[in-house]
Amino acid sequence: MEKPRLEILAPAGSMDALTAAVRCGADAVYLGQKNFSARKNSQNFDGDELREAVAYAHRCGVKIHQALNIVVFQSELESLKGCIEAAVEAGVDAMIVQDWGVASLVRQYAPDMPLHASTQMAIHSPAGAKLAEKLGFSRVVLARELTEKEIQAIVQSTSLETEIFVHGAHCMSVSGQCYLSAALGGKSGNRGQCAQPCRLPFTAGGEGKGKTGENVLSLKDMDLIPRLQAIQSMGVTSVKIEGRMKRPEYVAAAVTACKQALNGEKPDLDALRAVFSRSGFTSGYFDGRRDKSMFGFRTKEDVTAASGVFGELRNLYHKEQSRVPVSMELKAEAGKPPILTLSDGEHTVTAQSDESVESAGENRPADRDFAYRQLSRLGSTPYYLPEEGLKVELGEVSIRPVLLNLLRRTAVEELDAQREKPTGRFVNLPLPKYPVIPGTGRKPEHWGKFQSVSQMPREAEGFFDRVILPAAELLRLADQGETPFPVEKILPVLPRFTFEETPCGDVLKRLWEAGFHALYCESGAHIALAEGSGLPFTCYGGPYLNLTNPEALYEAKRMGLKGAVLSPEGKLSQLRGLARLSPVETGIYGYGRMALMALRNCPVRAQIGCKACGRKGYLIDRKGIRFPVRCDRPENILSPDNRVSYLLNSLPLSMSDRQEELEPFGFVLLDFTIESPEEVAAVIGRWKWGEPEENYTRGLYTRGVM
């Protein structure tokens, strides 16, 4: 059976960009409202503009997907409800969502609204797609860092629709897992405020080599447009163009190139490269070639090239295109008003004149050719009448052309109204009430996360209530009859990204048999893998799940979590209040060099190589601040495909001298990354005595995020 044609999904940050997308042949357009959108710096659409945009798109047979893909705080839930209501009233066709709580509220307030799991959810494996399905999504937007083989595996594993990016900017970090902008300036990518510090100059260095390179956190834009026919054969549902902050000319060029590729023509990549490029394009992730060739930045030559193509590209969308086939039936009988029926295959409307037609008499009677010439003049509308689309029942009558023109215009106006009419429901329920959960009256436990057992000093045993260690290392120790802690106090953790999931099932079975009956889950995929194992693991979520509101925590409980570390992207006062409402045990990130980026293409490896890095790589920004870069330990990642590097904060976050403010939380996470056993012991000492670190940050706990 022939696979359905790929949906071309275009970006629109303005009405002009939307018009360009529609007129150039996009099947769907994604956009955002003024609030709750991951591109707040684009123009976006308010209530009236949204209604106008959806009405225009629907007239033209184009769907509108609204990006609601940020995390929200409890104080914003009332405004979020209004945003959902505006989308339903406008007739939006789908919501693109990141936050588990937002997804839950959309299901409650707009039960007919399809949910698309945003790329911000970092869905990178079949298990991630399974969790999205359990959360109520009908489509998953896959991570941009996947290879062709990995995309194919997800498509074959799920009944959900799948959507992939095929052109536009690459985030350096896995989407939804970048905290660099928030850490440096309080502008969170998870809140739609990313200031793109990754595009600024950074240099790379390591143990065996000095600094080298510039702009080493800037990747070239993705381009998979020449691969669209192969992507269609894989069973992908939709191909997405990045660029809600880009000009209408860019949107026109990208959509046109996609249409050309799907039609078997050579896409005009020269125009696309001229309108916007960062030293060219890359298909490195898709091809599995993650190396230095993927890096690039916007040069003066790139900017100059763009100025010469804008006028030509505007010609691509200067007038409305006839893209919706319709059928018509005309009935005319002498002495009676003529009747015109117009249908688009889904909606059928009828127009009838107040004026009766006369018998032809001595005049030439109206015939089908005459009727077709008048009725097919659909001009500036999105409709066209195929030659075979007209049926007539004409007696020996004479019809004035102006009468047919009036019937046509009346029928078109009615069809427009039918196509524009919203069909979804808004259920005006009150906001959920979240009861305050009684506290335990005890101090928070101390949980320690380590890269390896060798990092743990003797002081750890008497201090930590729980320790988190790599699953693979725990199995090696168990095979030797050794465990660093009692097994009931140990939380194994799988590789943070399980692009290759095959070994995970066996690892989980062996962990259970070795007595490890709890798991620390740093991604949604981990939760689904635990459930899929058929073993009753007790699961706790990590901070990278981005849980920021009570509705998300109730969803976390429904997903099977007993507890979770709250997102560090909130003020301490917000997180304290959230902890008191949580139906699951809550933790707070109390110490550590938080991973500000998760990097599948390591910039240190790309610039100087792993040998020169010596597991002591770093990046230096334009102010001379050094950020450590560390990759997963190769013996713990289960498969080479799972290796990821992490850009760590230049200073550790620490709350050791403000522990009295952590009272509402069930546990405090101390996350050790580059610390030696001696440094870990010193940190433990400061927590015991309530002393501050010598050099530290409070992270976002005092200032919050935008």
Structural commentary:
It is a single chain. The chain has 706 residues and is α/β, with parallel strands linked by helices. It has three domains: 7-170 and 219-317, TIM Barrel; 326-420, no CATH class; 446-592 and 667-689, Phosphoenolpyruvate-binding domains (TIM Barrel, Alpha-Beta Barrel). Helix 4 links the parallel strand 4 and strand 5 (115-117). The chain is elongated.
In the CATH hierarchy, what is the superfamily of the largest domain?
Answer: Aldolase class I
First-residue to last-residue Cα separation: 49 Å
Helix content: 25-40%
Backbone structural class: alpha/beta
CATH architecture of the largest domain: Alpha-Beta Barrel
Number of domains: 3
CATH class of the largest domain: Alpha Beta
The rounded Rg comes to: 29 Å
Based on Cα principal axes, name the global outline: elongated
Number of strands: 33
On the 0 to 100 scale, the average pLDDT is 95
- pLDDT < 50 runs, ≥5 residues: none
* CATH fold node name of the largest domain: TIM Barrel
DSSP helical segment count: 24
Strand content: 15-25%
Provide key terms for this protein.
alpha/beta, 33 strands, nine-stranded mixed β-sheet, TIM Barrel, 706 residues, single chain, eight-stranded parallel β-barrel
